[in-house]
Amino acid sequence: MPKRAKKNEEGVDGESDNGTAAAKKEKKGKEPEAPILYEDPPEKLTSKDGRAANMKITSWNVDGLRAWVKKNGLDWVRKEDPDILCLQETKCAEKALPADITGMPEYPHKYWAGSEDKEGYSGVAMLCKTEPLNVTYGIGKEEHDKEGRVITAEFPDFFLVTAYVPNASRGLVRLDYRKTWDVDFRAYLCGLDARKPLVLCGDLNVAHQEIDLKNPKGNRKNAGFTPEEREGFTQLLEAGFTDSFRELYPDQAYAYTFWTYMMNARSKNVGWRLDYFVLSSALLPGLCDSKIRNTAMGSDHCPITLFLAV
What we know:
This protein has helices at about 65-70, 75-80, 100, 140-145, 175-195, 225-240, 245-250, 265-270, and strands spanning about 5, 10-15, 20-25, 35, 55-60, 85-90, 110-115, 125-130, 135, 150-155, 160-165, 200-205, 240-245, 275-280, 285-290, 305-310. The protein is α+β, with helices and mostly antiparallel strands. It catalyses: Exonucleolytic cleavage in the 3'- to 5'-direction to yield nucleoside 5'-phosphates.
């Protein structure tokens, strides 16, 4: 259940493009509202069909792996102890990865993808306790794959895809590219789903519905909440996939995973839900819980965790 904090001084329209924001001042003489905070409820470890969760996956946009490691992100990971850890926006070439993470004995199977053209840009990672049957990088299209945005791991019962979806950017300068990405990525996922069901996780860079961000009215023309990006996500769901958090918590407001660093947005819970676990319909009977770990610090995003019976 959400709970109220003590004080809020002004509203913020957060933008998802690299932590920028536009501030909106309260009208003179108006009392500031106390922010409503989201409280992660107790874990549900049993699926609707009565099976116990036996797979735990965590996803986190770390906004720079090296800085995140210095902010003790790995301490949180060890405490959370997922079977698989997926990271986005690592911003780190493989040769520059911190030894703290490359040497983690808890995850003997580690996979990295980075931007070919721009070092310190984009990038994803997947760390597994159990070795996948197969691992691939990208979605098979050069225009997308050079930015190091997707890793796919095949396991006996499902595919796991972690993605850092391209941001439409300030001024929507990459919106046309994003629309192309959405079509191609959906086709890639549908191709996998025809072989075996999948879990998609990561920063999908879209707040799907008005409930998924604090200030929908002020952000309709901003990256992450344009009609085009929202429609792209709707079309993904219509292709046979499910937003696991909304499946379990259809009316839960104030549940966000990203807050700009500016304007004290996180303490005021002026945020966006940009990070998702999306499931093939065949995996839905085994869905136990989809968590937003909003108290975990170290990035402008918080981690999310999926509990699944497979």
